[in-house]
Amino acid sequence: MHTEDFDELYNDLDILSNNEIINLLLDSQVVGLEKTRNAKNSIIDAAEKLSLHLNLTKDGRLIYAGAGTSGRLGVLDCSELNPTFGWPLERSGFLMAGGLKALTNPVEGAEDNIAAANTEVKNMALNNADALVAISASGSTPYTVAVCEAAKAAGALTIALANNEYSPILLNADCKIIIPSGAEAISGSTRMTAGTIQKVALNMLSTLTMIRLNRTYGSYMVDVQASNDKLKKRATKMVSEISQVDTNTALNALDKAKYNPKVAILIAMGLNFSDSMELLNQFNGNLRKALTKLRNNNT
């Protein structure tokens, strides 16, 4: 298991200068990022399958699973789906070894608890409408492997992300993302290079998936949940720029649209709320296609 290896490069780490230590740590991160690039095809494949799967029903969930750093990174990615992309809260979730307490505190034996993994998958009632992203640096974490196996047995689409090749978690997963991270500067501390790799891979996986689920328009997060002043300003700016209207018109449209930016854009361009919703539903939420039809109708 290479994530547990010792690398002679770091033998004198504790007696090096601060500058030398930081340079070594940075170099290890850069190498990790390059290895992530090598896995882009498997990330693309997983995102394609995931977006298609989640588009099959209106209630299929995207669930993340893991232990320790890997689990926390999954929870982080999960928690950003709603505010960034407007992904419904009821359509996302996570299974964390040790439960909520483990998000901030170590829970002894949690990552080895296979019984808990099976119970939690059963309690979540995973089914063939759902998808699971299982994350494990070692690829052999008993809890995460068990969750992945149980989710697959329940019919869910399973995606495994691991930093070791030939890992147990990869054996039965529908999609495999393998990004070897090698030995850590602090041996076995996979919160470092492996963690960086996992964060970047999850960023790419979820972002590409949400793009393919029509949750963006260009680089605009047009399904953003405007839950604070910063996001309300962002939504106003989006409506103004895409609809090419002034700020007051954008604000008025957002108010009529109940702060749904996609609907507000169409309202700012002359539609009412009902017609805006109907047009978006016609194209499964794809704003670009809706705008194209609206503009064609107006010419």
Can you walk me through this structure?
The protein is an alpha/beta fold and 299 residues long. The protein has 2 domains: 2-212, Rossmann fold, CATH 3.40.50.10490; 229-297, Helicase, Ruva Protein, domain 3. It is built from 11 helices and 5 strands. It has helices at residues 18-38, 40-54, 68-85, 114-124, 142-153, 193-212, 229-243, 247-256, 261-268, 273-282, 287-297, and strands at residues 62-66, 92-96, 131-136, 157-162, 175-178. It has a 5-stranded parallel sheet with strand order 2-1-3-4-5, sandwiched between helices. Strand 1, helix 3 (68-85) and strand 2 (92-96) form a beta-alpha-beta unit. The model has no long low-confidence stretch (mean pLDDT 94).
The secondary-structure element order is HHEHEHEHEEHHHHHH
Q: Quote the beta fraction.
A: 5-15%
Query: Strand order within the widest sheet?
Result: 2-1-3-4-5
Proper CATH architecture of the largest domain? 3-Layer(aba) Sandwich
CATH classification, class level of the largest domain = Alpha Beta
- Fraction of residues in H or I helices: 40-55%
- The general outline is globular
Number of strands: 5
- Give Rg in angstroms: 22 Å
CATH H level, superfamily name of the largest domain: Glucose-6-phosphate isomerase like protein, domain 1
| Unreliable parts | none
Distance between the termini: 63 Å
Annotation field: number of helices: 11
Give me the secondary-structure category: alpha/beta
CATH topology of the largest domain: Rossmann fold
Q: Can you summarize the main beta sheet? A: 5 strands, parallel
Number of domains: 2
Mean pLDDT: 94
